[in-house]
Amino acid sequence: MSTTTVTEAPARRAGPIRLGLSQGLLEIKQFLRTREQVTFTLAFPAILILVFGSIFKGTIGDGVKFTQYFVTGMIATGLMTAGFQALAIQIPMERDRGVLKRFLGTPMPKWVYFAGKVLMVAFIALLETVILLTVATLLFGLKLPSTGATWLTFLWVSILGITACTLCGVAFSSLAWTGRSAPAVVTPVALILQFISGVFFVFTSLPTWMQNVASIFPLKWMCQGLRAVFLPASFGAREPGGSYDLPKVALVLGIWCVLAFVLCLTTFRWTTKRDG
Fold first, then answer.
1. pLDDT surpasses 80 at 227
2. Where does the pLDDT of residue 9 fall: very low under 50, low under 70, confident under 90, or very high at 90 and above?
3. Max Cα–Cα distance, the chain, nearest Å
């Protein structure tokens, strides 16, 4: 899969908004042309909901079905996959093929490359969330938010979460020595975070030390924020702190956005390590 950048001519006459949108459109087109990536990113989470929803049909308390609990985690996982996992694997591959090095040789501002990635991630995250909500609503009776305040919570948790994951993905992309090694470096990290963050299991049923480790990373807080959206208010008493604690969710995700942005500025590499 080759990555294309906006050509030199548009760089001279197009404004910043047009440059960013053009690069984003190219990134989205390339994503949609890669069947394996589309299948894994969009279909796999929906398949997991179908499998888990068909197997686990009981409730976990306060009238909450396991499927309801699981869907909130899968939406958070979808955001993490679109931002962190996709970019942490894709960028090293493009770096290995010399795409980033060639980009530096064009008159295109560096920010255009990242703008394209951000727009691609936003597109994937939105599409995946719609798919997951549709499957869960039609097949497993998931109740969508009924008030404007709840939808607003859904919006800011998703925006902060996807921003943190995207920036973490860009920063983490510098750890892989080669594009070929990137999946082996990134995938285990993503899977471990899912298992300890309350995606596949009720978070409070996990060992305390595991909960403490998960609390360091964004995924746990994304899951917690989304539970406040899709689960009853009474279920908040089952959270580790006795409530959904949305202010703390916003604080931790905001801190991760700032921290990951600093890491991006200080660690991102345009060339491979063997190029120096």
1. yes
2. very low
3. 61
